[in-house]
Amino acid sequence: MGKVIAQNRKARFDYFIFETWEAGVILSGSEVKSLREGRANLRDSFARVEEGEVFLYNLHIPPYDQGSHFNPDPVRTRKLLLHQREIKRLIGKTQERGLTLVPLKIYFKRGWVKVEIGLAKGKKTFDKRRQIAEREAKREMERAKGMERRSKLVS
């Protein structure tokens, strides 16, 4: 993987991610220049399969500063490029109850803009609370290990 432009960190907290795919994105030149400056926002974006094609909605790419007044709409719908067999697999998976496509990160790979999309199912509030509790317990155990190591070094 190349240079990461933006990550949707909240997605891993809000969703269970089952599978991920790498997809190309159809962009205009000024959008690519804006991405090279590291400007993109994946929050609230999602992907959907429509008529055998995959589209990305609500990906915010701000207009390029040195661009003309013909800059495209910052939140326009963008087509994702996937193999036909991957699209057919996505159609089958997204028709299952509660599964959706969420963009996880956008990055450059050998000069091309790629989006990592994940097949996801939304977490309930109690799942999120459990994840926070597990993370805090793990942090507490690591802290206790560190204290134990320090006490052995001192004595």
Give the key terms.
single chain; 155 residues; Small Protein B, Chain: A; seven-stranded antiparallel beta sheet; globular
Structural commentary:
This protein has 155 residues and is of the alpha+beta class. It folds into two domains: 4-123, Small protein B (Small Protein B, Chain: A), CATH 2.40.280.10; 124-155. The chain contains four helices and seven strands. The radius of gyration is 20 Å and the shape is globular. 23% of the residues are buried.
Low-confidence stretches: none
| Total DSSP E strands | 7
Oligomeric form of this entry? single chain
What's the average pLDDT? 86
- Structural Rg: 20 Å
**How big a fraction of the residues is strand?**
25-35%
Task: State the CATH superfamily name of the largest domain.
Answer: Small protein B
CATH topology of the largest domain: Small Protein B, Chain: A
Named at the architecture level, the CATH assignment of the largest domain is: Beta Barrel
Number of helices: 4
How far from one another are the termini? 46 Å
Query: What is the count of distinct domains?
Result: 2
In CATH's first tier, which class of the largest domain applies? Mainly Beta
Overall body shape: globular
- The structural class is alpha+beta
The major beta sheet can be summarized as: 7 strands, antiparallel
